[in-house]
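Archive entry. Fields below.
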Amino acid sequence: DAKTTQPNSMESNEEEPVHLPCNHSTISGTDYIHWYRQLPSQGPEYVIHGLTSNVNNRMASLAIAEDRKSSTLILHRATLRDAAVYYCILRDTGNQFYFGTGTSLTVIP
Amino acid sequence: AAGVIQSPRHLIKEKRETATLKCYPIPRHDTVYWYQQGPGQDPQFLISFYEKMQSDKGSIPDRFSAQQFSDYHSELNMSSLELGDSALYFCASSLASAVTEQYFGPGTRLTVT
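PREDICTED_STRUCTURE:
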């Protein structure tokens, strides 16, 4: 079941950084933090995941609070193609993902 | 790179009919997941399989069943269809390790009339 809280929607100007927050105050020590995004009429797409340390990949960065009760997905330069619903998901050693309500990101040209 | 393949992409059925959705995972992926996404809703986990055995069960109705075959493809069988079953059905695949990402297919849009 969903154990994360995200804002329903956010806006960003094109080519500016975007910080998408996620609260997960009940996270356990074995929960990994995953981020996925879903473009309209498409399947969810993996963005990034982490456990304790901040993570970077070609798509984004993930900043994890020291107490792990919150995290922030950072898109360094938003483009129009980044407009999507972004889901923050906690995953333990089980195989299922429980999607929360996600944040709908609008990128303004 | 090969992606997850789902068929059919669109399916229209009448109430009380049956439907079978198919999912072909990425080569060498041994774990398959099924999700249901109703209109304007978030994806809901239904069921998953690892090495042809059911590994986890979510909110899958009793009218639905699924299996994974020896070639790792999976089928979701849906019987006594109801109007509320109209949704996008996504299949995802992964390698069975604790934290690998899931790769989602394009989905099958099921419409029940």
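CURATOR_NOTE: The two ends of chain B are 37 Å apart (CA to CA).
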